[in-house]
User: Fold tRNA (Adenine(22)-N(1))-methyltransferase TrmK from Pseudalkalibacillus berkeleyi.
Amino acid sequence: VLSERLKKVTTYIPIESVIADIGSDHAYLPCYAVQNGLIKSAIAGEVNQGPFDSALSQVKALRLENQIEVRLGDGLEVVSPNEVNVVVIAGMGGQLISNILNRGKARLEEVHRLILQPNMGAKFIREWLEANGWALITESILEEDEKIYEILVAERTETTNPLSDAERLLGPFLMREKNETFIKKWEREQMNWKRIVNQLEQANPSEEIIDRKRDVLKKIQIVSEALK
Ligand code: SAM
Assistant:
């Protein structure tokens, strides 16, 4: 059975799409999406041999080779520019996801929707989207097995509506919705940051320490404001 997290990701795939799932691991997401008639076909990309092999055997075991092609390669390298119209990248850090998008920009020409699920550091993705002509159309947050995950859905935009610092960190949709999971996540983060500030206060106040402390205090303040 597919995790609630990946199931939720599939709900943002427009029907009949051709998708690329980058970092597909066991190819669970594309297999589920094809088996449930949610998509036309998929490319499952993997950079590592082990997960590539798992993806391949999963696809073969389910006899989905006609609809899912498993390809070995780094990031968006595995797709050519006109092949897919939706890209999914799930289960990695936000920095890695935005790095994959940035290096693969040229392969995104025909792509009209990105569905991104960072395990942390969603802020890096929001920054990348903003800088590259994409706008968030929705976001969601969910908890599974004690972990909290965010899902960011973006489409191309002509208009630039810059995000505020708070929106970049917390997510414009998520901070407006402010559900229980959102509050739980950011209360947790705040506790960690407060611990960090305490540690920084024990250290020698070098310029670097002072800068770091200022950054963390700023984030604490943004979150306090948002949770009010
Ligand atoms: N997407 C699945 C999910 O959400 O459950 C699997 C997530 S798994 C934690 C991350 C996968 O991304 C690993 O299988 C890893 O090999 C792959 N990966 C990491 N960097 C990659 C890259 N640059 N290109 C393609 N795959 C990558």
Q: What stands out?
A: Residues 181-227 form one domain. Residues 6, 22-25, 45-48, 51, 74-75, 90-92, 100 surround S-adenosylmethionine (CB under 6 Å). The chain has a mean pLDDT of 97.
